[in-house]
Design a protein that fits this description.
Elements lengths: L7 E3 L5 E4 L2 E6 L7 E4 L6 E8 L6 E9 L4 E7 L7 E5 L23 E7 L3 E6 L2 E7 L15 E9 L8 H4 L11 E12 L5 E4 L9 E4 L7 H6 L22 E3 H4 L5 H5 L3 E6 L24
Antiparallel strand pairs: 1-4, 2-3, 3-13, 4-12, 5-9, 5-13, 6-7, 6-12, 7-8, 9-10, 10-11, 13-17, 14-15, 15-16
């Protein structure tokens, strides 16, 4: 791939190929950990991933939401587990006793594509598979009397890593030791990602240290991207198509509190969606097979 799409970062030294089944995140040798994440963040809404997980003992395929305040929401697949996927969440960097995970059933995740979605509002977080809810976390039920409910603007990350490395402390959780070198490359395929942002903004501003969504300002001091400007900036080898729309009745103000911009109910997911970002991972002709870019977790743009 000659050029990384401008809305996405790829980890240093990581390779992501494009094939007939989408973006390929491959573990072919020890320490491979291809990771791709958005430069922009979104603040409540919905994310859909169409994914086929990687096989392989110890190999973890992941779709993760991450915030600057260390909120996190996870989908994780263990390569040696062929009937389940793991869901998890963390708030403000607190892991607790690692007792928040669930393992809903999913048919053959390493051989079949499924749509994995997250519906995220100020009051609830819902994980679903192929349109069926498999877990609901109400904000009030999150650890810390709701304080650890994920509620700050998130970037979206896709990745593959080896929990079963012989030296890793995670190999028990990962299902055992991964053969090094692996007998064959282990690949996660990502066909598409759709991100619906309830509160598109040029910037999100933390006004205090509470970590509460009510304290975060949604700032739009410049015009929101139009569909045409986004499309013109994404003529890339990943063939990402981005669209963005803001209804005239909901044109962002220069600066608003999220607490006033958002209804405090789950209707924010279905009723307040103002921006949509769609990434379709398709092969293009004549592209190289590698991307080699610097990794800098702080080079994140709070733009939609």
């Amino acid at each position: 791939i000659k050029e990384l799409p401008s809305e996405w970062h790829l980890a240093q030294y990581a390779n992501v190929n494009l094939g007939s089944e989408g973006a390929e995140f491959t573990f072919a040798k020890r320490y491979d950990a291809p990771t791709l994440w958005t430069k922009f963040k979104f603040f409540f809404g919905r994310v859909e991933f169409v994914v086929k997980a990687a096989p392989g003992v110890g190999i973890v395929s992941s779709m993760v939401l991450l915030s600057d305040d260390l909120d996190e929401v996870d989908w994780e697949f263990l390569g040696g587990v062929t009937t389940n996927v793991q869901t998890n969440y963390f708030g403000k960097g607190y892991t607790g006793s690692y007792n928040r995970s669930t393992s809903p059933t999913v048919a053959s995740p390493q051989t079949q594509f499924h749509t994995y979605a997250l519906d995220w509002s100020p009051t609830a977080l819902v994980w679903s598979i192929d349109g069926v809810a498999v877990r609901t976390l109400n904000a009030a039920d999150a650890d810390g009397n709701g304080d650890q409910y994920p509620q700050s603007p998130m970037k979206v990350s896709l990745g593959l890593w080896d929990a079963g490395d012989p030296d890793a402390a995670t190999k028990g959780w990962g299902g055992g030791v991964t053969p090094i070198p692996p007998p064959e490359p282990y690949t996660m395929f990502v066909k598409s990602v759709k991100i619906f942002n309830s509160n598109p903004a040029q910037q999100y501003q933390y006004t205090d240290k509470s970590g509460s969504w009510k304290s975060i300002k949604v700032i739009n001091d410049a015009p929101v991207f139009s569909s045409s400007s986004l499309a013109s900036s994404h003529a890339t080898t990943l063939s990402l198509g981005f669209t963005s729309s803001v209804s005239s009745a909901q044109t962002p103000q220069t600066s608003t509190d999220a607490s006033s911009a958002l209804p405090s109910s789950s209707s924010v997911v279905s009723d307040a969606v103002q921006s949509t970002v769609t990434a379709l991972f398709r092969p293009t002709s004549g592209c190289d097979s590698e991307i080699d870019l610097d990794f800098n977790g702080h080079l994140l743009r709070d733009e939609i």
